[in-house]
Every structure is written in C-alpha cells, then in structure tokens.
Amino acid sequence: RPHAPASRSPAGTCETASERRGRIRRTRTGARAHTHTAAMQIARARVPAPARGVALARRPRALRARTHALSSNDIKNGMAIEVDGQPCQVVEFLHVKPGKGSAFVRTKLRNYVTGTSKDHTFRAGEPLTAADVDRSDQQYSYPEGDTYVFMNMETFDETRLPTDSLGSAVDYLIEGMDVSVLTWNGKVIGVDLPNTVQLEIAETEPGVKGNSATGAEKDATLVTGKRLRVPLFLNEGDVVEVDTRDGKYLKRISS
C-alpha cells in the first residue's frame, strides 16, 4: 500500500499523517483549557468582592455543653443537699463576708431522715453534692401499730412507714394532713410536712384571763402528744399554730 503523501504544517514544514493527528489533538485540548479558564474568570467577575473593612462571615463554632458544679455560693432555701452522707434541706442561709479572713455561708439544715435541725457553716465556693430527693404528694390516713399509713389520692396506693423513719414528723401528724413522701436513692426516707400546722391543745394548766405578761410561758401538750411552751393565757381546747421546723408556738388560731 502506498504511503500517504506528507502534508505541510501551518509553519510550512512537512509532517506525516501521525504528526498531523497529534497536532490536532493538542490544539483541541488547548482550546478546551482556554474555554474553561475563560468561564472561571467570568464567574469570578459576577461575584462582588467584599467591601473594604467588612469581615467575611465565619462558620459558627459548635457550642460546647457546659456543666455548672454546685457550690455553697448556689445555696438557697429549700435546696436539698448531702451533708455527711445524709440528705438535708436548707432552711436558712446567710452569706458572710468578714472584713478579714475568708467569706463563708452560715446555714440551718434539716435532716430529711431524722427530722432534726442543725447549724452548719460552709466555706465560700465549697463544692456541694445535690441530694436527689423525690417527692410524692400523699395524705396521712391512720396509724397501725408501729407504722403510719399514707395514701396517694390519685392512685390510692398506700405507703407504710415505721415510726423511726418519720423522726419528729410524728409530733405533727393528724388524719387527713397532706404531706410529701420522700424517696432518696430508691428508698423511702420519711415525709416532708408543711412549714406550719394548726393543732389543738390537749393538756395545759388553766389560763389566767388577762394574763399576757411578755415572755411568760407554760407547758402544753398537743393532741398529737407534742409538748411545747405556750403563753399563759392559753387553755385546753385552744387551736394554735406551730412551726414544724423548730417546734415552736407561733400564735393562737381559735379558742
């Protein structure tokens, strides 16, 4: 087969068919690259440049979950905390900043388990452990031997608590009283009473009419068996208001 005659390139030199095909491929590749570059330049020209002095928007950083450690600086009335391994409720607190020395927090705590109150002082910023105490609203029904029976008025489920688990709460319980049954670490530890209750005086010395001497008091026994000091003018059958947090007489309700 005769060879194809050589042709001349655009530069005027002779080239074979193979060389001509290679030159055509290179020309086409260069044209495509030129077209792509031109398109990119046009696209960039359409996007306005940011004004001088204007910061470009940045992608927002992922927010980190922050946990706040509980300390004595966070103490407030009603808070449940663990002290010496026991769940306690803050009854009173006072932040103190002396002129010299470190600041501290003076508190009055009520032990949920025993019902007793005590004073406790924390250093300012001292770490605390929250007491995970659950509450269930129930109503005191009746005593049964050495136990006290409470009822959930929605489900009618009964909770029976021994006397020793109620502490001083037994001094104020009367049938039909609404209380909160407390559970801590999966165990029923007692009940939380209203801050004040109204109870009748069962026994006391006869009152002297008109005797309202300031500070003069006498012994009295309430219908629950609770003994306390009351003013001289009170008589048996009088209904008085008592603070369940410290067991003190507050005022006479009726006679």
Automatic annotation (TrEMBL):
PROSITE patterns in the cross-refs: EFP
Main subcellular localisation: cytoplasm
Subcellular location: Cytoplasm
Pfam families: EFP, EFP_N, Elong-fact-P_C
Region (Disordered) residue spans: 1-39
Functional pathway: Protein biosynthesis; polypeptide chain elongation
Residue span(s) of domain Translation elongation factor P/YeiP central: 135-189
Biological processes, Gene Ontology terms: peptide biosynthetic process
Alphabetized SUPFAM superfamilies for the sequence: Nucleic acid-binding proteins (SSF50249), Translation proteins SH3-like domain (SSF50104)
An example Gene Ontology CC term for this record: cytosol
Keywords associated with the record: Cytoplasm, Elongation factor, Protein biosynthesis
Recorded family membership: Belongs to the elongation factor P family.
Stated name of the protein: Elongation factor P
Record organism: Prasinoderma coloniale
Classification of source organism: Eukaryota, Viridiplantae, Prasinodermophyta, Prasinodermophyceae, Prasinodermales
